[in-house]
Design brief:
10 strands; single chain; five-stranded antiparallel sheet; alpha+beta; elongated; Arc Repressor Mutant, subunit A
C-alpha cells in the first residue's frame, strides 16, 4: 500500500468516526473526543491534521468558532459510498417484519402495513409507492353479470392491483356469451404487460360474433380505460410526526420539509426516480428546495429483478445511514417475496 493510500484510509477513518459520533450525539466532534472514543492508531496531532485536511476538502466544517467539526453533505456522501456493509436488522426486528407483514390480506393492506412498519423501525418518515400499472401485467380478467345488461369488469394484475368497472351492454347478454368473452380475453391478454393490452385487443370486438360486437366493443373500451388512462401513481406516507424529534437538525424550521411532503408530486418524483437497487440521496442531491436539509434512502421492490415500485425513508441528513439502508433493504426484500407468493 502506498503512502498516499494509507493517508486516504486514515482520513476516511477519521471521517467515519466524526460521522458516527455526530449522528449519535448531535454535538460537533473535536480531536480530543476522537482520541478518547476511537482507536484510530495515530497521535492527537495527526488527527488534528487529518481533520484540517478534511475541512479543506469540504468533507467537514466547523459550525462555530472553537467548536468541533460536523460532516457536510459531501462528507456524508463519501461515508455512504465507502460503507463496507449496511447494519443488519436484529432478530427482534426481523421477527417483527415477518409477523406484521405476513398477516396482510391484499395489496392495500400490504402497503399500509409496510409504511407503518418502516416508520416504526426507522423512526423516520416512511414512504411506500403503490406498484405502478405501467409496470404490471394482467393476472386475470373477470366478468361478473350484475343484471342481464350490466357486467362488472374486474382486472387483477400480477402486482396485486385490482381495478373494477361497470359496463352497460345496452341490451341483455347471455351468460354463455359472457363466459366465452371472458375465456377469450384471458387467453389473449393473460400474463401480458398492460402496455401491450391495447395492441392485443385492437380488433378483439371485430373478431367476436356479430350479435356480440356492440357490447364487446364497450367492454374493451372500458378495459382499456382501466389499463391506459388510469395509470395514476399512488404513494402512502407514515411517521411525519417523527420529524418533530429532529427539529433541531433543520437550519431554521421543519416547515419547508413538511410543505414538500404535502406535495405528492414531489414524493412521486423523488421515489419514482430512484434506482432499482438501494439509492441514497443526501441534502442538496434532492432537487426540491424544501428537502435540501434531508436525506432519502429508497429501494425498489418487486418480484425478483422485476421492480414494480419503490419504498424508503426520509429524514434529516444526520441519520444512521447503515441502519436506514439495512432496514429499507430488508423490508423491500420481504415485500417483494409477498408479491411473488401472492
Amino acid at each position: 500500500m502506498t503512502t498516499e493510500n494509507r493517508l486516504d484510509e486514515r482520513k476516511l477513518d477519521v471521517l467515519r468516526a466524526i460521522v458516527q459520533d455526530y449522528v449519535a450525539t448531535r454535538e460537533p466532534v473535536g480531536s480530543k473526543a476522537l482520541v478518547e472514543r476511537h482507536n484510530i492508531g495515530v497521535s492527537p496531532a495527526t488527527i488534528r491534521n487529518e481533520m484540517a485536511a478534511l475541512e479543506d476538502e469540504g468533507y467537514i466544517h466547523q459550525p462555530h468558532t472553537s467548536a468541533g467539526r460536523v460532516p457536510t453533505d459531501k462528507g456524508y456522501r463519501l461515508f455512504v459510498d465507502r460503507l463496507s456493509q449496511v447494519k443488519p436488522l436484529s432478530v427482534a426486528e426481523r421477527r417483527a417484519i415477518h409477523s406484521f407483514l405476513d398477516g396482510a390480506v391484499d395489496l392495500d393492506d400490504v402497503v399500509a402495513r409496510t409504511v407503518r412498519l418502516l416508520a416504526q423501525i426507522t423512526q423516520q418518515v416512511a414512504v411506500v409507492q403503490y406498484p405502478s400499472l405501467t409496470r404490471s401485467a394482467v393476472r386475470h380478467v373477470e366478468l361478473v353479470p350484475m343484471t342481464p345488461s350490466r357486467i362488472m369488469l374486474v382486472l387483477i394484475t400480477d402486482t396485486g392491483r385490482v381495478e373494477q368497472r361497470i359496463v352497460d351492454t345496452g341490451a341483455p347478454v347471455s351468460e354463455s356469451s359472457v363466459a366465452d368473452v371472458r375465456a377469450r380475453l384471458n387467453t389473449e391478454v393473460g400474463a401480458q404487460h398492460l402496455s401491450d393490452v391495447p395492441t392485443l385487443l385492437a380488433d378483439f370486438a371485430e373478431r367476436s360474433p356479430a350479435q356480440d360486437r356492440s357490447w364487446v366493443a364497450a367492454l374493451v373500451a372500458t378495459l382499456l380505460d382501466a389499463v391506459v388512462e388510469q395509470r395514476e401513481e399512488r404513494i402512502v406516507m407514515a411517521g411525519t410526526a417523527n420529524l418533530a424529534r429532529f427539529r433541531h437538525d433543520f437550519p431554521d424550521t421543519v416547515y419547508p420539509v413538511l410543505e414538500a411532503l404535502e406535495e405528492q408530486v414531489v414524493l412521486l418524483r423523488l421515489f419514482g426516480e430512484a434506482q432499482s437497487g438501494l439509492t441514497v440521496r443526501i441534502g442538496h442531491e434532492n432537487a426540491h428546495e424544501g428537502l435540501i436539509s434531508t436525506s432519502v434512502v429508497a429501494s425498489g421492490y418487486g418480484r425478483g429483478e422485476d421492480v414494480v415500485a419503490h419504498l424508503g425513508v426520509l429524514g434529516p441528513t444526520r441519520m444512521d445511514y447503515p441502519g436506514m439502508m439495512g432496514a429499507v433493504t430488508a423490508v423491500a426484500a420481504y415485500v417483494g417475496r409477498i408479491l411473488a407468493e401472492t
